[in-house]
Design brief:
Elements (H helix, E strand, L loop, with lengths): L2 H42 L7 H14 L6 H32 L1
Helix pairs in contact: 1-3, 2-3
């Protein structure tokens, strides 16, 4: 592969990455909407936001379905970050709901 071909291949690969990133973002936002629903249900049942057993179930599920090339540790690390952001969102929503109730 000469330099021009390599640069063209690099540009095409980066374009594919950009497209995949948008798809990942769409999926993360879909997941977030479900998490918001779960947050409302948990709040109505006075359940805690943090549920370590459920998080372990999520990790187990994604690791079992991982076909690589990501390692199990990498998958777990990525999902730890996603779950952490989802917990933060649930806390923020719960605080907003509680502030709204206190203002009435």
């Amino acid at each position: 592969m000469n330099r021009e071909e390599a640069l063209r291949s690099l540009a095409e690969s980066r374009k594919r990455i950009d497209e995949l990133d948008v798809q990942l973002l769409e999926l993360l936002n879909r997941r977030t909407r479900v998490v918001e629903q779960i947050g409302h249900i948990k709040e109505s049942l006075a359940m805690p936001i943090y549920e370590p057993k459920r998080e372990d179930d999520v990790f187990r599920n994604v690791i079992e379905h991982n076909e690589g090339p990501l390692t199990a540790d990498a998958v777990k690390s990525i999902f730890e970050r996603i779950i952490d952001e989802m917990r933060t969102l649930q806390r923020m929503r719960r605080e907003q709901n509680n502030q709204g109730e206190n203002e009435c």
